[in-house]
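#lab-general

N.A. 3:47 PM
ok so I finally got the sequence cleaned up, no stray characters, all 100 residues accounted for. can someone with queue access submit it? mine expired

B.Y. 3:52 PM
send it over

N.A. 3:53 PM
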Amino acid sequence: MAVLLALITGLIHLVATTRAIEMSVVLAVLFVLNGLGFLGGAALYFTRFWRRSFFLVAAVYSLVTILALFPFRGWGIEAFYMNGAINPIVTITKVAEAFL
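B.Y. 4:20 PM
back already:
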Protein backbone atom coordinates (compact mmCIF):
# COMPACT_ATOMS: atom_id res chain seq x y z
CA MET A 1 0.00 0.00 0.00
CA ALA A 2 2.78 2.44 0.92
CA VAL A 3 4.58 1.79 -2.36
CA LEU A 4 1.39 2.51 -4.31
CA LEU A 5 0.85 5.77 -2.41
CA ALA A 6 4.48 6.78 -3.01
CA LEU A 7 4.07 6.07 -6.73
CA ILE A 8 0.85 8.10 -6.87
CA THR A 9 2.27 11.16 -5.13
CA GLY A 10 5.57 10.88 -7.01
CA LEU A 11 3.89 10.78 -10.41
CA ILE A 12 1.47 13.57 -9.53
CA HIS A 13 4.37 15.78 -8.44
CA LEU A 14 6.15 15.14 -11.74
CA VAL A 15 3.00 15.89 -13.76
CA ALA A 16 2.30 19.01 -11.68
CA THR A 17 5.75 20.30 -12.59
CA THR A 18 4.33 21.53 -15.88
CA ARG A 19 1.99 23.88 -13.99
CA ALA A 20 4.53 24.78 -11.31
CA ILE A 21 7.05 26.00 -13.88
CA GLU A 22 4.55 28.68 -14.93
CA MET A 23 4.82 30.12 -11.41
CA SER A 24 8.48 29.62 -10.63
CA VAL A 25 11.44 27.64 -11.93
CA VAL A 26 12.55 26.99 -8.35
CA LEU A 27 9.12 25.59 -7.50
CA ALA A 28 9.21 23.37 -10.58
CA VAL A 29 12.64 22.02 -9.59
CA LEU A 30 11.32 21.29 -6.09
CA PHE A 31 8.37 19.40 -7.60
CA VAL A 32 10.70 17.32 -9.77
CA LEU A 33 13.01 16.53 -6.85
CA ASN A 34 10.07 15.65 -4.63
CA GLY A 35 8.51 13.40 -7.26
CA LEU A 36 11.81 11.66 -7.90
CA GLY A 37 12.31 11.24 -4.16
CA PHE A 38 9.00 9.41 -3.78
CA LEU A 39 9.59 7.28 -6.88
CA GLY A 40 13.15 6.53 -5.79
CA GLY A 41 11.97 5.50 -2.33
CA ALA A 42 9.36 3.21 -3.84
CA ALA A 43 11.97 1.62 -6.11
CA LEU A 44 14.47 1.28 -3.24
CA TYR A 45 11.91 -0.71 -1.28
CA PHE A 46 12.22 -3.59 -3.77
CA THR A 47 16.02 -3.76 -3.64
CA ARG A 48 18.35 -5.54 -1.26
CA PHE A 49 19.44 -2.11 0.04
CA TRP A 50 16.14 -1.47 1.85
CA ARG A 51 16.44 -1.32 5.65
CA ARG A 52 13.73 -1.10 8.33
CA SER A 53 15.11 2.27 9.41
CA PHE A 54 14.13 3.68 6.01
CA PHE A 55 10.47 3.53 7.08
CA LEU A 56 11.24 6.36 9.51
CA VAL A 57 13.06 8.28 6.77
CA ALA A 58 10.04 7.85 4.48
CA ALA A 59 7.68 9.09 7.20
CA VAL A 60 9.79 12.19 7.83
CA TYR A 61 10.09 12.81 4.07
CA SER A 62 6.31 12.69 3.74
CA LEU A 63 5.82 14.99 6.73
CA VAL A 64 8.27 17.55 5.33
CA THR A 65 6.48 17.39 1.97
CA ILE A 66 3.11 17.99 3.62
CA LEU A 67 4.44 20.94 5.62
CA ALA A 68 6.19 22.41 2.55
CA LEU A 69 2.79 23.07 0.98
CA PHE A 70 1.79 25.73 3.47
CA PRO A 71 4.45 28.42 2.88
CA PHE A 72 3.54 28.36 -0.83
CA ARG A 73 -0.25 28.05 -0.61
CA GLY A 74 -1.23 29.58 2.73
CA TRP A 75 -1.27 28.46 6.33
CA GLY A 76 -4.88 27.34 6.63
CA ILE A 77 -7.46 25.28 4.84
CA GLU A 78 -7.15 27.68 1.90
CA ALA A 79 -3.97 25.81 0.94
CA PHE A 80 -6.22 23.07 -0.45
CA TYR A 81 -8.29 25.44 -2.62
CA MET A 82 -7.71 26.97 -6.04
CA ASN A 83 -10.08 29.51 -7.58
CA GLY A 84 -12.70 28.85 -4.91
CA ALA A 85 -12.81 25.06 -5.34
CA ILE A 86 -10.92 22.22 -3.75
CA ASN A 87 -7.75 21.48 -5.71
CA PRO A 88 -7.84 17.71 -6.36
CA ILE A 89 -4.11 17.46 -7.09
CA VAL A 90 -3.16 19.00 -3.75
CA THR A 91 -5.76 16.97 -1.90
CA ILE A 92 -4.80 13.61 -3.42
CA THR A 93 -1.07 14.11 -2.90
CA LYS A 94 -1.42 15.30 0.69
CA VAL A 95 -3.77 12.43 1.60
CA ALA A 96 -1.37 9.92 0.03
CA GLU A 97 1.57 11.51 1.87
CA ALA A 98 -0.33 11.50 5.17
CA PHE A 99 -0.95 7.76 4.88
CA LEU A 100 2.71 7.13 4.12
